[in-house]
Amino acid sequence: MLEETSADVDCVFIRQELHRHPERIKDEVEAALDAADSPCDEVILGYGLCSNGVVGIEARECRLIIPKVHDCIGMYLGSLTRYIAMFDQRPGTYYLTTGWIEKGKDPLTTMREEYAARVGMADAEEAMREELQHYSTIAFIDLKLRSDTERFKRIARENAEYFGLEYVEIQGDWSLLRKLVEGPYDPSEFVIVEPGGRVEQRLFR
Fold first, then answer.
1. N or C: which end of the chain has fewer CB within 10 A?
2. Is residue 137, in this structure, part of any structural domain at all?
3. Total of domains in the chain
4. pLDDT per residue as tens, the chain (205 positions)
5. Are 88 and 158 members of one domain?
6. Domain co-membership, 85 together with 166
């Protein structure tokens, strides 16, 4: 976990691989809250519901603010409404972003570097194809984040071609991420838990 501090904001980065273990998110977030050196007015959590990983987190002394989305894909698309619309249009979509690919979390890299190291290439490919059996599309969310975005699009396209899936590109939307940092925190877009309360699944509906 890394920490960056400015005059008014402390930023704590929690391990990216927790997306594979949502049952650990609550404990890691609460440990980060316990480790905070000074009191604050608000804690802004850069997670969605994340397979109920945030359920049970206590707001404690500070107001807790969480984007009202199912997972990070909703944040990259700008809203839960757009996420649902995209899901209705293409329900079997595996989303990739520059960050996911850069961390080696695309299916091809995961298969070749993580799974193959444990079980061999043949079994690794069988396992990954089984994971992807209900997907029909790989979509790259383009947030116009970097000058070398084309390289990441190429990797996303290679994933689609290797596993026989359709490839599409989707324009990302920074608006919800911007509001997460700057506000305002409209209850229609954010879960707001007052001090002493806990995060509940129903708050994301």
1. C
2. yes
3. 2
4. 334 444 467 777 777 677 777 888 898 888 888 776 566 788 898 888 988 999 999 988 889 999 999 988 999 999 999 999 999 999 999 999 999 999 899 999 999 999 999 999 999 999 999 999 999 999 999 998 888 999 999 999 999 999 999 999 999 999 999 999 888 999 999 999 999 999 999 998 8
5. yes
6. yes
In this structure, the answer to whether residues 110 and 181 fall within a common structural domain is: no
| DSSP β-bridge partners for residue 137 | 93, 166
Query: Does a structural domain hold residue 75?
Result: no
In a domain, 66, yes or no: yes
**Co-location of 127 and 197 in the same domain:** no
What are the beta bridge partners of residue 11? Answer: 4
Do residues 16 and 61 both lie within one domain? yes
The phi, psi pair for 94, rounded to 5°, reads -105, 115
Q: Which domain holds residue 145?
A: 80-171
Question: Are 127 and 110 spatial neighbours (Cβ–Cβ below 8 Å)?
Answer: no
Compute the distance between CA of residue 70 and CA of residue 33 in angstroms, rounded to an integer: 22
